[in-house]
Specification:
Layout lengths: L5 E2 L3 H23 L4 H28 L9 E2 L11 H10 L7 H32 L8 H22 L4 H30 L4 E4 H26 L22 H4 L17 H29 L5 H23 L4 H23 L1 E4 L4 E4 L2 E4 L1
Parallel strand pairs: 1-2, 3-4
Antiparallel strand pairs: 5-6
Amino acid sequence: MDASLYDLAPALQLALLGLAIAAGPLAWVWLRNRQAAPARRLSALTLLTLFLTFDLVLFGAFTRLTDSGLGCPDWPGCYGNASPVGAIQEIRAEEARMPTGPVTHGKAWVEMIHRYLATGVGVLIMTLAIATWLQRKRGLPVHPGWPALTLAWVCVQGAFGALTVTMKLFPAIVTLHLLGGMVLLALLAMQAVAYRQAQRGSGPMPIPRATRHWLVAATALLWLQVALGGWVSTNYAVLACSTFPTCQGAWWPPMDFRQGFELWRHLGMTGAGEHITFAALTAIHYSHRLAAYALLAVLGVLAWRLRGGPLHWASRAVAALALWQFATGLSNVILDWPLVAAVAHTGGAAGLVVVLTWALRESRATETHGAKVVHGREVSA
């Protein structure tokens, strides 16, 4: 790897900027909950961090979809500066050389704002890990392992972000970066539920064993679909099929799965250095579409089974998000991948990750018949 792609000169400035960005949410949570119990304060901060991380995932999708990922081709700054303002000469030179290329003033700002937001979220996650560890020593019934794991993962995610830039949008790395953002959402959701359970003094709510099996199946299938969706996006294969429900006028169009799912290769190329074929892009797109049919069916069954129980809110959320994903996914195909629909599709996937993870952490399987839940506890009917 070219050492010039990593310039740590602006690292301290970026760290200070991250602290400044995180100071606002930290002050807001403290002012609103200064008289509350530690579990309440940590729960509020985790929910706010989860919300901001969700926004960060959406902005990451916007960065990718506007081809702004190489707006600043080094890391962590922009041509060795903490902002595009200090890199104005380099950016102008690149714009003059390639007016529609990867480096423009607008794209540089999009990329750097994404990095600023990521740094602020990292500071919030670090604060949660430290605060949970300190409060654990004072009797908080939440193990600090979740916040520590979340902190470790945000560092891994930062490394993927750096590689996304320095490896020039290598599809496998960009897909892993997308998946890493979803994993971060899931970890924060698990953490948020743990704080809420500590706050109310009860554990997971009982649901029928069969329903929980459907919940586990839906979650596993969702992660497969997120990975396939990331592979579609990072290979720019959305428009390989521009009709629905058929693809290129056929139910089974010409496809090259071997080439399409060759993971370690450069963007638009095969591992042998040849240009990737349209049949390979079709295989990438159609695999995502076929998996979507299966996921929608499972989500429909899950939403139906969750209704009327202690997780009835998840039933409505799963049904709404499933319809949202169908509508935005269809819009991407028939409207030629509009930016709003593409970002919204990522948002729907992120929403499903949060909802299903939350429901998993908040539930446990039970074989008890004729039971109901009161304040999170199972009692005889």
